[in-house]
Design goal:
Layout (H helix, E strand, L loop, with lengths): L12 H28 L3 H9 L5 H10 L22
Helix pairs in contact: 1-2, 1-3
């Protein structure tokens, strides 16, 4: 198989394989996070799209930061109002 077109971009084949492995790991991390959020939020359309389409993490990052629902965080104990006992009659 002719690889002459690769040499201007990656003069060393080890560098090419490193780039491929890094791209795959990058994509899998973002895809896993996005699929988890889409499944948890019951976004079936997004889940199917993110599962099928491979965009090297770009679509996944867009979903995570623009379209997922943000769950409100519970308040800290220090911010809660103290319970006041009722007076007995």
């Amino acid at each position: 198989m002719e690889l002459d077109w690769v040499y201007p971009f990656f003069p060393n084949l080890a560098l090419m394989w490193l780039a491929i492995v890094l791209a795959v790991v990058w994509s899998l991390v973002w895809k896993g996070i996005a699929l988890w959020h889409a499944g948890r939020n019951a976004h079936l359309g997004w889940f199917i799209t993110l599962f099928i389409v491979n965009t090297l993490g770009i679509l996944e990052i867009i979903y995570i930061f623009a379209f997922r629902r943000v769950v409100p965080r519970p308040q800290k104990v220090s911010q809660l109002k103290p319970l006041v006992p009722r007076k007995r009659r």
